Amino acid sequence: MSDERSTRRIRLGMVGGGEGSFIGAAHRIAARLDDQFELVAGALSSTPERAHASAAALHIAPDRSYTDYAEMARTEAQRADGIDVVAIVTPNHLHVPVARAFVEQGIHVICDKPLATSLAEAEALAQRVRERGVLFLLTHTYSGYPMVRQARELVADGAIGDIRIVQVEYVQDWLGEPIEQQGNKQAAWRNDPAQAGPAGALGDIGTHAYHLAGYVSGLRLQELAAELSTFIPGRALDDHVQVMLRYEGGARGMLWASQVASGSRNGLRLRVYGSTGSLQFDQEKPEELWLTRPGQPSQCLYRGVPAQAGSTATPHRIPSGHPEGYLEAFAQLYRDFARAWRGEPGVALPGLDDGLQGMAFIEAVLRSHREGMRWVRL
Amino acid sequence: MSDERSTRRIRLGMVGGGEGSFIGAAHRIAARLDDQFELVAGALSSTPERAHASAAALHIAPDRSYTDYAEMARTEAQRADGIDVVAIVTPNHLHVPVARAFVEQGIHVICDKPLATSLAEAEALAQRVRERGVLFLLTHTYSGYPMVRQARELVADGAIGDIRIVQVEYVQDWLGEPIEQQGNKQAAWRNDPAQAGPAGALGDIGTHAYHLAGYVSGLRLQELAAELSTFIPGRALDDHVQVMLRYEGGARGMLWASQVASGSRNGLRLRVYGSTGSLQFDQEKPEELWLTRPGQPSQCLYRGVPAQAGSTATPHRIPSGHPEGYLEAFAQLYRDFARAWRGEPGVALPGLDDGLQGMAFIEAVLRSHREGMRWVRL
Amino acid sequence: MSDERSTRRIRLGMVGGGEGSFIGAAHRIAARLDDQFELVAGALSSTPERAHASAAALHIAPDRSYTDYAEMARTEAQRADGIDVVAIVTPNHLHVPVARAFVEQGIHVICDKPLATSLAEAEALAQRVRERGVLFLLTHTYSGYPMVRQARELVADGAIGDIRIVQVEYVQDWLGEPIEQQGNKQAAWRNDPAQAGPAGALGDIGTHAYHLAGYVSGLRLQELAAELSTFIPGRALDDHVQVMLRYEGGARGMLWASQVASGSRNGLRLRVYGSTGSLQFDQEKPEELWLTRPGQPSQCLYRGVPAQAGSTATPHRIPSGHPEGYLEAFAQLYRDFARAWRGEPGVALPGLDDGLQGMAFIEAVLRSHREGMRWVRL
Amino acid sequence: MSDERSTRRIRLGMVGGGEGSFIGAAHRIAARLDDQFELVAGALSSTPERAHASAAALHIAPDRSYTDYAEMARTEAQRADGIDVVAIVTPNHLHVPVARAFVEQGIHVICDKPLATSLAEAEALAQRVRERGVLFLLTHTYSGYPMVRQARELVADGAIGDIRIVQVEYVQDWLGEPIEQQGNKQAAWRNDPAQAGPAGALGDIGTHAYHLAGYVSGLRLQELAAELSTFIPGRALDDHVQVMLRYEGGARGMLWASQVASGSRNGLRLRVYGSTGSLQFDQEKPEELWLTRPGQPSQCLYRGVPAQAGSTATPHRIPSGHPEGYLEAFAQLYRDFARAWRGEPGVALPGLDDGLQGMAFIEAVLRSHREGMRWVRL
Asked: Residue C180: how many CB atoms within 10 A of its CB?
């Protein structure tokens, strides 16, 4: 580890995320929060005016505002002060080509999920990332919550015994009306197979639910059986997902993802039941983690409370009782990336393996659905 | 309606429910709570000492304490002050033969669920009940909660639009260890196919979940696909149930019932999502019903609060803020029976239809499970 | 203890509680719930028609329906099958004269709170009760909740160390409008000094809050300073109470009672903080008790959960997860009375001491308020 | 408004907040979150090594790392690229002298609360700030929560009618042991009258509670009566505060602040009851605001939900359901400052008036306590 690496801010570029983007703004706040990154370059939009206006608003120098990501990759790679890492916050179909352009230049990648629009595409990228030896962070944001990490550590430490049941759900209602047919851009690309790939709610939020379940339980999924639904007429992709799960070791479970569940905001919830206890996490109350053992009081674990199992896993910025939230969880992933980049030991980033598993999950769900909900092996 | 019928207490007999029985005691409190019944006869146990000791403790006259339910039915039918109705709180396999004995004597029946151990047996009973013209109440207790009734009325009134999604679960942990192999009587008969029938958790609590979903949503289930699991080695019946649901009109859903979900007490929860809102009910917080419409504040409806839709459906004994619970919900079913018996109009008891549907549900789940989770029509 | 006493139902009479009465109905359900009482006589109203109609509806024999409580006391005392105990559910000003009439006849008393309308009156009654040796139960209902008893036991066992702070509140909104001027009978007598005594919300609910705080903390109040308010124009008595508390041993606290706190139902809440932990109880969620120690997870204790401190104090009828509520807590007091009546050991009823302390509390609050909120010793 | 002012980052300096400081780190994250500030200078500690190490870690140039705040004020005022604003995050006794040094140079001030250690000192500063015409932000963080702002707007819009009752509390437990005598620096200065001033918990958190109550209710406090306690032996200042409140217009209330309430984390809670409804806010669940009207369902308002009264007041960065927390609330104050600095209209910063009122509150509480809890006019 060079001394310079250990102290200076990491130079960040961004592809996508121009004005009005939700996820681009979230990435930028996440990058700023712990002051380990500076945003210095971007291809924020393929529309030149929008790209340059967005860049100016973000204090990016005009000569580092690009409209073509390939040019950005080439140019930045040649600058002495070129970006160290690129954040990719485009619609899904561009994740792989953009990542590839930067990987070829040896530039590290932070990429939104899902990794790709097909497993084959994802595997080819993964191969190239390994060959080039760059860092690759897939932003499964919810794994950045301190209480999610504590849950994972509790499970690994045997706090709930052998896992029997995994119940995970991710429900929203923002696609409860056909807003993609009414000018909403966020909705439009997510329901356009050319941009989103073959999965709708499945790719957008189902993959988060699947990742969270695996991240906390530590279990590999062996088989699934799934039914997709599309409740809104005229919609091209699924907006509702139901999956039966068979995990290694005999655990059973169910996954439900929906973007038409009226009255839901961002309801990502995980419950894991083992032979000696259970854990419950609700993303809308992220400072809490419930641990209950049979015949005992329920325990509400809280971020930053010292005397609780697994608490070594919970980094935090402010004391317990001063709520942290989604942006702090997101920032945790950037902080993890920074630690990995600086060469600190013991950092495990969600990355290519998670992305490949997510793509395998998507493809298995699509296959099971097409084939009448038969069991499909992963 | 005779004048006598309109005022006197209803004479109640009981079969099963001797000392130590949970559900027998619950029935008796439910019958007493609103003072419309008096318990005057019983075949509380097939063991004479236990039967008579239990009867004495309950102030039943010695000559009306029986050990043979058939004799009880015949004898009581001939008394001028014989019982008006019998409550059947035996293990499942006796529900039909006991009910039959009393029905043949023209005595009304209050019966615990599930109705029978097979659909065929249930249908034969139903036929005979109709022929004899007696009242038949199946104690789907949870439909007695005021907020469950309010939910049903809200759905019927269109408060959440067309239903899209039904999510129901009933989870406990009391069978998380093999206590049926360790002398627990409640557990022993429930896991003995000769007494419980072919369904374990499925019959014991899955039927409650299924009933609640149909009761509130007003929808008929058309198809299901199910997987049963048995987590505890040596257990004869299922202790964990997962079902995919296809309702008439296109609604989708999932049902989960488990008695090995560590850290769960009596977690019956229902969520129904329609095109314009959703309802959520949790049996462990039965005074509350959540109604949320997209883009609006969540509303927490509360028993006895006047200015809320559907509140005409919520009978209650004490003002809002003085919590009622499980026993009051149970008593509501007895109160409903009393109203029906007294000839009051507009009373719909959960009864044979519910019981037949429950048995059809059980058989469909068993079939789907046997056949690799294929879709089965009801 | 005679054998008869150990088994037969206790014969109960009631004064007050005719049709439309909330608290009379609650007493009757409480008496019935555990089947240890039978209601056999009553002076349910001073209006003959209302008294007799109410009695008939309750299956009280016509010759035991009275309109004069004094006559009822004399007559019942002379019957071989006369009542064992009378429940007094009248407006406050009659508590003492009615109790006195029955006590003189050697009949036990169950009396609603507050005990009297003045401390002097209460002391005279207490003296007479002691001389006559009858049982006296004051229905501080909330002390019947299992989790309240568990809280008391936890404090006594030192689970939270030395108590520092007691915060108690009881807030409602049903007197937020001048309904006593609009025909509401419940409100009318409570705001009529001739019937309610000199305290409004203070006597009606402030005494419950005061009792609960003392019951759980085990501490004696030494001094208080109070301000009463009347928010509704034309109202004769206080509808809002604020009190500063100094307990023996140095603990400090605050008590707040209000019947004009818009949007409150029946918000009785207690928090007790000791040197090593705290307890929180909310009457609207009576199955839960929160125990939190510094730097540790919060524990949610639940009725009927075996492995928790103090659980020996929690009697219950149905398993954990099947919610019990207000009526079951009320019934617990009747059950306790029955145990005392049958001569069972170890039963401590809320009674005269609690009533005398409550009256002393009321008088101290009134005095402090009159004298500009100065500190008053109890 | 110059064009430059409308776009460039604001140059921020900081006094106090060296390594290990909680509040300094919180200020810095708040300043970074919305990318409107850059930290360019600091007198982070009076110990040179600590000052310079902290500055280096924060990427402050060596020539702008000071150890003397007076020198920093003079030097920065003379630089063409000197700081625009200074953030003061020292112990209380330095707030006024530091602020004064920068105000004299015409540099804007962001200052932690309480404003001063005496009202006289605060008034002198306020006079000078007005004369110099600089901006002054007092960081009453909790007024930056979107739901607090929505509450304020709801009250102002009459959503709960005329206010009757204000209940506010702020409870923690981190001073439940004498940690100031055991080397904890945060605790040590807070309990040293020379650094903290004459108020302990009163100044540290009581002022937050007082501010929040006034901010939301819009009411001025007219009189108070207070008792302070010190539970931990050897502690120089109060650690527990109880206050009775009389607001203009007849509203009544209570304020409770404690740092020895075992099992409390950061429990700032406000409840305001009006003639037609009430509002409840709990800082530990800051995304929610409860609005309840008598006889109606409770409404849980949520940040970012469009169809709810007062929502125009709720700025936010990420959609509803993605929790924001304490740091985002803090950042809101910095964002407000930036808007004011850029000359945008309609920005009301918590500032000198709030600080003066806070000091008047502290002095009134101290006086009332000294004089036996007599009523003191503000």
From this structure: 23
